[in-house]
Design goal:
about 130 residues, alpha+beta, about 35% helix
């Protein structure tokens, strides 16, 4: 039996965000084991001119390697309708990022964002 790797995933949307966050939650729950979600929080856009976002954090376990996880998250973005063209117009249908895979910290700048800190605390996750 494979060891399980713990994941912390951040995801958000600024276009029909309630619908797309729900789609992403359903997909994340079907791909990863023991998925638990934070509450959803409205945030101002960062480095983009757009509508507000809804953001959320998921914690999960997986036996997939990192490349498979990354591919699965890209598939979730695609299933929600995310495209490069839409992003160029300021529409982020779905953005899904791994914050932590096992002991590997990713997206270091995201860990400093107030909403990420708030949602991690909500899930009782110690911040570095």
């Amino acid at each position: 039996m494979f060891d399980k790797t713990k994941l912390i995933i951040a995801f958000g949307s600024n276009f029909e965000p309630q619908i797309n966050i729900e789609k992403a939650k359903q997909q994340l729950s079907s791909v990863f084991e023991t998925t638990k979600f934070s509450s959803e929080i409205w945030t101002d856009p960062i480095n983009i001119k757009s509508e507000k976002f809804i953001n959320c954090i998921a914690i999960a376990e997986t036996s997939f390697d990192l490349n498979t996880v990354l591919s699965s998250l890209k598939d979730i973005e695609d299933l929600c309708g995310n495209t490069i063209e839409k992003r160029k117009c300021g529409k982020v249908i779905m953005d899904v990022d791994i914050l932590k895979y096992g002991d590997t910290i990713m997206h270091n700048d995201d860990w400093k964002r107030p909403y990420i800190i708030q949602l991690l605390k909500e899930l009782n996750i110690n911040i570095k």
